[in-house]
Write a structure and sequence with these properties.
Helix content: 40-55%
CATH architecture: Orthogonal Bundle
Distance between the termini: 19 Å
Strand content: 5-15%
CATH superfamily: Winged helix-like DNA-binding domain superfamily/Winged helix DNA-binding domain
CATH topology: Arc Repressor Mutant, subunit A
Length: 90
């Protein structure tokens, strides 16, 4: 999974992460059952605070796109998105 953060972007860093993961799900690069990298790994790779990535993963969980289990990581819940959800991801 390849995610980038643009420091010049007006969106908060967590939102950039959320949007990038949504785009990967919508494009089919992350399918149902795919594991997301550990929070610590993504934070280290991007050079951001651990809590930024944890917040992004929780946001994705609230939106029903991933399932987060403490100690077990985050997994893409479903690639079968409603038309409304697909439009929101664009």
């Amino acid at each position: 999974m390849y995610i980038t953060i643009d420091e010049g972007d007006r969106r908060p860093m967590y939102q950039q992460v959320v949007d990038e993961i949504k785009a990967l799900i919508a494009a089919g690069e992350l399918s149902e059952g795919s594991s997301l990298p550990p929070v610590r790994q993504v934070a280290a790779d991007l050079g951001v605070n651990l809590n930024t990535i944890a917040f992004a993963y929780r946001q994705l969980q609230k939106e029903g796109l991933v399932k987060v289990r403490h100690g077990a990581g985050a997994v893409v819940k479903s690639r079968l998105l409603s038309q409304t959800t697909e439009e929101q991801l664009r």
